[in-house]
Write a structure and sequence with these properties.
The complex is a heterodimer of chains A (231) and B (407). Chain A has 231 residues and is of the alpha/beta class. Chain A contains eight helices and ten strands. In chain A, the strands form two sheets. A six-stranded mixed sheet of chain A has the order 6-7-8-3-9-10. In chain A, strands 2-1-4-5 form a four-stranded antiparallel sheet. The chains are: A alpha/beta (231), B alpha+beta (407).
Chain lengths: 231, 407
Amino acid sequence: MNNTPLVQLENVSRIYQQGKVQVSAVTDFSFTVQGGEFSVLCGPSGSGKTTILNLIGALDEPSQGRVLLEGRDLAELGRGDLARLRRDRIGFVFQSYNLNPVLTACENAEFVLALQNVPKALRRQRVMAVLAEVGMAELAQRRPDELSGGQQQRVAIARAIVSHPAIVLADEPTANVDSATADAILELMERLNHEQGITFLFSTHDQRVMARAHRLIHLRDGRLEHDEVRG
Amino acid sequence: MQIVFFALRNFNRARTRTWITVGAMAFACAIMIFYASLLEGWLAGMEKNAVGMELGEFQVHAHGFRADPDLYKRIGGEEEVLALLGREGFIAAPRLYASGLAAAGNASSGIELRGVDLAREPRVTALNEHVWQGQWLAQEDRSGVVLGRKLARILGLGVGDEVVVVAQAADGSTANELFRVRGILKSVAEGVDRSGFLMTSAAFRTMMIVPQGAQQIVVKRQQATEDLNQATIRLARLLPNHEVRNWRQLQPVLARLFEMSDVSLVIMLLITYVAVGILTLNALLMSVFERIPEFGVMKALGFSPGGLFAMIVMESMLQVTVAVCLAVAVGLPLSFYFSSHPIDFSGFVQSSSTIAGVALDAKWYCVVTMNSVVLPVLFLYLVAGLAILYPALKAAMLKPLDAIYHR
């Protein structure tokens, strides 16, 4: 049995240079995420939640320490390898959806599969199944500007999970949607975690998200404050 | 294929800006196709005047004649030479030359007498079709002469007027004769315009007492596809006792002018396209910079830097391709129209204007060649390709995180 954690952060610090001032976003942070988790990084604004997601998502590099995904040290990968890693192993759900405005919901959802050169017919079949899963099959041919915020976030979730990534990183996924939509989205992700075993790691300070999490990683001033595992 | 798909989707994104950019490129390219065709036409006209009217493709002289033109330095046995050239795939016509003085009323002028073989000359040059007033020489009209345009003006002569010629004949006696102006040539070349005095070779031989020989044999290739230099070498081997020169050697300034025409076209292309390039660069930079967060997301989702670079270049090339299609659709018909409807610069160009001694035709035709279409198109791709390099590289090198949060 492979006991390698899906995500492993070892004494990670991230310091940003803002003009002449150095700002420490994350300080000496260590934690692991196992496959199948439905975990939340929580804490007030500026506590380092998004920075940690960016580090795990290979969008940023630590100033100190190591970030490992499936046992691979991200620092050892080049730009091309990191691009492939993000494409094949990581799904992203952004706070502001970030759908491509010139593509339809269906095309947005199949974006990653297209990058993976999955044959068109198979791609379309998988995307339509996932869009049906997130309740967007009937709106598949609409462009983002023809969809509500909640609908766009559902498409973003479909885009994140359609390629079966090792982990989905969701940065404040409910921040820009109303309560009902937020509940629906969370329910959807919870179901995907439960039924398909997809690992989710959120950053949020939304109580609704935290209420559904199996594990809460509390952050304060870039440091781990408390790691709470729920039954 | 995905790159083409994304490029196609992005093509019409900022519709107004895209079409202004495409329109500017198409306009510049169409103008350059037209300009290149006009330049080709102008050069073809120059070549026609120089080679087709006066020089011929090659000239054969007796040794020393070109350095020191002399009535006695003639090619002997010219009929045998002409027959040999005919057998070897050349078309040739003999010419006779002498200097003299023409007088009419109170005016007089130095002239270059030219005896023309009426049967052969039209097969080598189109001088007989280049008569401005009156008619070309006729065998039966031995006193009829055709004059250069400037010479006729200097002497105050019109068609039908009489003119007296005095020269030294080959036997040392004074040759003088009364001729009647049968025709006046259009502008051909400085020398012919200023002092050309053309008569039939029979009249020349009688007046100048030159029963045999010719000072010059003008030659043309039967197959114009044969390389000029190769044909010159072949001709020189056929006639080892004579001086053989092609028109490029006879008119090096003109030859250089033709060689430089491609350079001048390239310079014009660069000047025009640099302006278009700046416009294109500006539009492309805007297009790239306003989409930086989107590129960041694409990279976050796994779009490779190389793929992003290729997509942006593809978008640009797509715009260029549309511009090229529009430019060809406009530029080609325009050029073809002016290939049969010349632009008349008579009001701006003097009838006597010359370049490198060759008359400048006041009517400019377009001549559409592969060069006149392909060069402007290739240059547009090149300039647009260079213009897109910076924004495409910049986008490709962006870190995903910096790009996503770029404002």
